[in-house]
Design a protein that fits this description.
Blueprint (H helix, E strand, L loop, with lengths): L9 E12 L3 E4 L1 H11 L2 E2 L5 E5 L8 E6 L2 E6 L2 H14 L10 E11 L5 E7 L7 H12 L5 E5 L1 E2 L2 E2 L8 H4 L16 H13 L3 E8 L4 H6 L26 H17 L4 E5 L8 H16 L4 E5 L13 E4 L9 H10 L4 E3 L2 H4 L22 H5 L15 E8 L7 H8 L2 H10 L7 H18 L8
Parallel strand pairs: 2-3, 2-4, 4-6, 8-9, 8-17, 9-12, 12-13, 13-14, 14-15, 15-16, 16-17
Antiparallel strand pairs: 1-7, 5-6, 5-7, 10-11
The structure holds acetamide.
Length: 467
């Protein structure tokens, strides 16, 4: 039995199978047909076996996929929807056929599907360890398989500044040479970043850049000491909460304006993440002063802002600012209140509860990579056993923009390490973000995962196993 993760809204199987062979062709919408032909190892034709058809779609963001004895037809009202249908088709293939079809038995079936949430994300921390462009592209392909549609890049932190800013060139000349492990760091040129954005767009994934302010800024202050009230040293450790921008200095706001303007100019997507977490070296008054000024500056550049939930301490956010919740499934002190503050100010919430959705935590005490924090270790079963609408009273489906699985890179030096911690727990998060809550079943999910990891093996995606 071949299966799909995340579980579709509706799947009705008929009797029998359809055999897809290497002489099959793909056609219809040219963009997605080209992609499907490439991943399946098939040719494109005008009279296709696999027809990817733009047509009226019954549900926003959705698609249908029908496999009959005569062929395969997907319908959606956008190319993005057809791309999602192709991901379901890839998962319906036997694992050994997923990278090149020779002869594959497919079930006769009809899938009608659409997402529960618009925002289905992963976050990659490229600051604590730097990941080159090709590595990020690999992760983009990996997460596309699960119908995730946003990749949040945590571009700056104490350990390194990873994106070139023309007006503050020392950020990458002096602020990018450090990382955990002392391997020399790295950064994205503006062309590198554009290449990532374009590649992500080819997978219908929106890049969400994060410039984390006003804490997590040691690397910025190494590059420009005037950005800090206290002397700083390059940092390659794993502590948090020790750095802050100089809150009462006008230089800081010139820096914020320049950086945000340049990042907004590079970013076609609607979102810009300004961090705001763990500013433990900034006084309460200074934090509120900074958030009000920095978010007002950022709002001028036409993006919808996102902040970690601590940003909700401010009641002066630009209307519609999105909050990203990273406390636990049982909220810790203040977290629920700070998160509700975004809703009161007209924004929605992205749920990333650290005890179940953070991918940097060990699976169990024996896991070689990862850290143990946020109530960890976090098993695959733990990552599946929660619902984003059941964490904070007053925050249900309507208040939720979506769900994101962050990965902090303290222990991950390569994208293979990232994959090992992310997969398969990121499949749990993708299903929570996509599938109707009533469709979710932990026992049945575990069975689908057995098959899914065979597909990961076939596709060369590292994983930590299903236990
Ligand atoms: C966070 O984990 N500091 C957002």
């Amino acid at each position: 039995m071949t299966t799909v993760i995340p579980a579709p809204v509706s799947r009705v199987d008929g009797p029998g199978t359809f055999t897809l062979t290497s002489s099959a062709t793909v056609g219809g919408d040219t963009v997605t047909a080209g992609y499907a032909a490439e991943v399946l190892g098939l040719a494109v034709s005008g009279d296709p076996t696999i027809d990817l058809a733009l047509a009226a779609s019954p549900a926003p963001g959705g698609y249908s996929l029908e496999i009959t004895s005569g062929g395969i037809r997907a319908e959606a009202d956008t190319a993005a929807g057809l791309f999602l249908a192709v991901q379901s088709l890839r998962q319906l293939l036997p694992a050994d056929q997923a990278t090149g079809v020779t002869s594959a038995e497919l079930p006769i079936t009809r899938i009608d599907d659409h997402p529960r949430f618009h925002y289905r994300g992963a976050m990659l921390d490229v600051a604590r360890h730097f990941f080159p462009v090709d590595a990020v592209k690999k992760y983009i392909d990996d997460i596309a398989l699960l119908k995730l549609n946003h990749l949040h890049l945590h571009l700056t932190d104490d350990q390194g500044w990873r994106i070139h800013i023309d007006s503050w060139p020392e950020l990458t000349r002096a602020g990018a040479t450090t990382e955990i492990g002392g391997r020399g760091g790295g950064f994205y040129s503006k062309d590198d970043y554009r290449e990532i954005v374009l590649y992500a767009a080819s997978r219908f994934i929106t890049i969400v850049p994060e410039i984390d302010l006003p804490g997590h800024t040691n690397a910025a202050s190494v590059a420009y000491p005037e950005l800090s009230d206290v002397p700083v040293e390059p940092y390659e450790g794993i502590e948090v909460g020790f750095s802050s921008l100089a809150i009462r200095s006008e230089t800081t706001y010139r820096f914020v304006d320049d950086v945000i303007r340049e990042i907004a100019g590079l970013t076609p997507g609607p979102y810009l993440h300004l961090g705001g977490d763990e500013s433990l070296s900034t006084t309460d008054d200074d934090f509120l002063y900074f958030i009000q000024r920095a978010t007002a500056i950022a709002a001028r550049y036409g993006k919808t802002l996102i902040g970690w939930h601590e940003m909700g301490r401010s009641t002066a956010l630009p209307a519609g600012t999105i909050g990203q919740y990273w406390s636990f499934t049982t909220p810790q002190e203040g977290a629920a209140e700070h998160t509700l503050s975004f809703v009161r100010q007209g924004g929605q919430i992205i749920m990333s509860p650290a005890d179940v959705a953070y991918l940097d935590i060990k699976y169990d005490d024996a896991t070689e990579l990862g850290l143990v924090w946020a109530n960890g270790p976090t098993s695959v079963a733990d990552s599946y056993d929660w619902d984003p609408a059941a964490i904070i009273p007053g925050i249900g489906d309507e208040q939720l923009l979506g769900v994101e699985a962050p990965l902090w890179s303290e222990t991950t030096a390569t994208i293979g390490d990232v994959e090992y911690l992310a997969f398969p727990r990121i499949a749990s998060i993708a299903e929570i973000a996509w599938s109707p809550a009533g469709k979710r079943d932990a026992v049945e999910f575990r069975q689908r995962l057995d098959r899914f990891v065979q597909l990961l093996d076939a596709l060369g995606i590292h994983h930590g196993g299903v236990a």
